[in-house]
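Structure (tokenized):
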């Protein structure tokens, strides 16, 4: 079988690259070993976690916040099996949608594990063990990433596991220990805390959410603790194992912790091993990434790599941008993704979102900047929805007023960050954002006011 382009991996980067290439007139094929397309993000990552976050938030809201609106609720219960079914239905529906998009764009789909088999060749091993080879002058590697389990953590896929297992518990654990205070650990820890688990979060660093603006992370920490997450900082986990139907977590300098389940949320690494890279003369770097140039070309002629396979944020939307840019580069010879403006979102409550540089990064780089901050407690819409925790922070260059970073903790932060990212992509100044008429009463007015606060002229603060 011959194609103009073969994509190994049907995740956010892979299927998007395939569709865009097909739109540009190429004969394209996608190779994916899982039954459902969409990659980790859709099957066991972004989508199912957000579905459970939404269900658990509604349950907590009904039990603790409806009364403030004059709504009485008695005999409140939840059905975990129904929550899980809803989550699975969301995943299945979206996966079928991707399958339909491939059909619509005449993209061939091969079910199996793809592996490079020399220049211009990909060997596909089907689920029944049979093999076939497809040929193409262009091959895109889009195999994504997998969870990292640190030495000493004995994952058994049941009591001790990673995010995949934590998305499918059949009962609510009485005590869940989360190893890692990043966004995965905090999101899934929040889900099970809302549903009744005692949740202990063990973080090696002296703060949560490394990579997020320190000021924002510092504001989030007491909020999460107040919600009931037992977050312990500066803790070095030595081991975690299942024993006699329970789990034992051993930490340096502390008494062992006995719990019901353990979630290891300690990062991800590229899934680039056993990809046949050696057959085309390629090798990964020390972190498992495949080196590429600005056009996503590897050192092997005709082989490209995108998404979590290459350096950069391991985020689905970054992979999608890579996929589109790579496909267009195949046609035009030019591609560009601005990795300085990749938004990040933590879907806890309150949500946390950011785009651009943090205060710490600007200070380290010696950039002189101005800061504008506006609290949601002064926003009319936040008051009407009874969600006033948090703030918007805008960082702008002191000389040019160009916006360098926007950081939000509060209601709908993940949606609000889109306006900031769009403005920054066009080189907007804080005054540009401040001069835009925003509808009232809306949450985006908080971004406008924070932009006005950069020059000390916020109106409602």
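Design, position by position:
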């Amino acid at each position: 079988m011959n194609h103009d382009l073969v994509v190994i991996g049907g995740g956010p980067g892979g299927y998007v690259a395939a569709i865009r290439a097909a739109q540009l007139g190429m004969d394209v094929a996608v190779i994916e070993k899982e039954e459902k397309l969409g990659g980790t993000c859709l099957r066991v990552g972004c989508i199912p976690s957000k579905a459970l976050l939404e269900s658990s938030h509604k349950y907590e809201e009904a039990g603790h916040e409806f009364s403030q609106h004059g709504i009485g609720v008695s005999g409140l219960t939840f059905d975990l099996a129904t929550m899980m079914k809803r989550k699975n239905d969301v995943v299945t529906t979206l996966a079928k949608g991707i399958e339909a998009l491939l059909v619509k764009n005449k993209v061939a789909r091969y079910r199996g594990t793809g592996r490079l088999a020399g220049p211009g060749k990909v060997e596909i091993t089907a689920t029944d063990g049979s093999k076939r080879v497809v040929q193409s002058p262009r091959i895109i590697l889009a195999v994504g990433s997998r969870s990292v389990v640190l030495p000493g953590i004995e994952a058994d896929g049941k009591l001790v596991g990673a995010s995949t297992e934590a998305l499918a518990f059949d009962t609510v654990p009485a005590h869940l220990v989360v190893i890692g205070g990043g966004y995965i650990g905090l999101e899934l820890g929040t889900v099970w805390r809302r549903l009744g688990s005692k949740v202990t979060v063990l973080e090696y660093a002296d703060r949560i959410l490394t990579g997020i603006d320190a000021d924002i992370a510092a504001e989030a920490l007491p909020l999460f603790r107040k919600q009931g997450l037992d977050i312990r900082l500066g803790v070095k986990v030595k081991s975690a194992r299942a024993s006699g139907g329970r789990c034992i977590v051993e930490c340096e300098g502390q008494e062992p912790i006995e719990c019901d389940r353990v979630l290891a949320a300690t990062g991800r690494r590229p899934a680039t091993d056993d990809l046949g890279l050696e057959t085309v003369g390629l090798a990964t770097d020390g972190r498992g990434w495949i080196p590429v140039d600005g056009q996503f070309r590897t050192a092997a002629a005709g082989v490209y790599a995108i998404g979590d396979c290459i350096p950069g944020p391991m985020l689905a939307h970054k992979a999608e941008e890579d996929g589109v840019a790579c496909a267009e580069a195949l046609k035009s010879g030019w591609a560009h993704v601005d990795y300085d403006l990749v938004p990040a979102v933590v879907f806890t409550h309150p949500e946390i979102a950011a785009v651009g540089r943090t205060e710490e990064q600007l200070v380290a780089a010696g950039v002189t900047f101005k800061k504008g901050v506006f609290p949601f407690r002064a926003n009319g819409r936040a008051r009407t929805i009874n969600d006033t925790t948090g703030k918007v922070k805008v960082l702008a260059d002191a000389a040019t007023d160009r916006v360098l970073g926007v950081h939000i903790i509060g209601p709908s932060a993940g949606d609000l960050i889109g306006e900031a990212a769009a403005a920054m992509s066009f080189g907007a100044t804080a005054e540009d954002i401040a001069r835009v008429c925003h509808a009232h009463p809306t949450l985006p007015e908080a971004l406008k006011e924070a932009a006005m606060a950069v020059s000390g002229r916020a109106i409602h603060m």
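Reviewer-requested clarification: Residues 80-104 form the longest helix (25 residues). The radius of gyration is 23 Å.
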